[in-house]
Amino acid sequence: MTQDRGKTLLVTGGCGFIGTNLVRFLLNRPEGWRVVNVDSLTYAGNRVSLAAADDNPNFRFVHGDVRNAEAVDAVEAILADGVDATMGRFNAGP
Ligand SMILES: NC(=O)c1ccc[n+]([C@@H]2O[C@H](COP(=O)([O-])OP(=O)(O)OC[C@H]3O[C@@H](n4cnc5c(N)ncnc54)[C@H](O)[C@@H]3O)[C@@H](O)[C@H]2O)c1
After folding, report:
1. How remote is the CA of residue 76 from the centroid of ligand 1, in Å?
2. Separation of CA 92 and ligand 1 centre (Å)
3. Which of 12, 37, 57, 68 is the most buried (most CB within 10 A)?
4. Are 24 and 59 in contact (CB under 8 A)?
């Protein structure tokens, strides 16, 4: 993504297991990406795990459902981790 320098990236489910590490990784990259994390904070989401990123001007947290179009407005790339990853529940309502 080197051609995407300075762009705004959307991470869905950034408070989950993979998303938390993905957000940290992206914010530490030299490209200067802005990261918007949209997470609905289900049982699997942990807001505290990204508390340190709140001081980063390139980071914004949106408490919302990724299925809500307003929550995902004005981004240029999407990195999707925001699903209920529990197999039975995902199959019942993906
Ligand atoms: N963890 C693994 O080993 C693994 C392996 C392969 C693939 N995956 C896939 O990677 C993705 C993330 O996995 P994970 O382990 O980080 O999951 P996780 O359950 O730890 O995190 C999911 C996050 O998504 C959020 N979320 C759920 N529904 C949402 C919605 N509608 N809108 C916004 N946020 C929502 C939750 O609050 C949570 O923070 C899943 O698609 C999973 O199937 C995970």
Report:
1. 21
2. 15
3. 37
4. no
Cα 58 to Cα 25: distance, rounded to the nearest angstrom: 13
Backbone angles phi, psi at 79, to 5 degrees: -120, 110
71 lines ligand 1 (CB under 6 A): no
CB-ligand 1 contact for 44 (6 Å cutoff): yes
Strands 77-80 and 8-12, by their bridges, are parallel
Q: Write the pLDDT tens digit of every residue in 64-91.
A: 888 887 766 655 556 666 566 665 665 5
Q: What would the pLDDT profile of 29-69 be if each residue is shown by its tens digit? A: 999 999 999 999 999 999 999 999 999 999 999 898 888 87
- Which residue has its alpha carbon closest to ligand 1 atom 42? 85
